[in-house]
Fold this sequence. Notes:
elongated; 7 strands
Amino acid sequence: MNEIVNRIAQSGLVTIDLAEYFPKPEEIRVLDIKDYLFQGLILREKEYRQALQQKDWSEFQDRYAGIICSTDAIIPLWAYMLPVHYLQPIARKIYYGNDEAVRLQAAIDRIYALPVESYRAQRVLVRGCGDEPIPPQLYIAITEKLRPYVKSLMYGEACSHIPIYKQKDT
């Protein structure tokens, strides 16, 4: 009787699912400067400063924070800096942008923070199919991060993959 052997399981591939690097929606909060504009158009410094001082910042505790202005108002650049004063001690990380921009940048930061030792000389497969669409920026980040360390880097699924990089034997 011939035993069925799972060659994929025995291949030693290390699989990375980039969807796992996205923060969950509940981990993100966005501060929209438009909420602090006089008549929805004008930023008045004194009122803006007072409003930020009085704001309950607890919703940002241990979350990824985004700062945006979703209207076409002309906002001075310092107005983006001021909320950071309040957010930095409590937020996990602060970015410019809406939920989607924060989500993407946080995922890229998580990829760049990967400890490379666990991937050194490994055969790594970056999953190419999943329930969630993955933007190209994450594929670029993971390739840039791992290429100098891995034995080989592939895209796709274990049963059908595309080679991206293979270390040359010296």
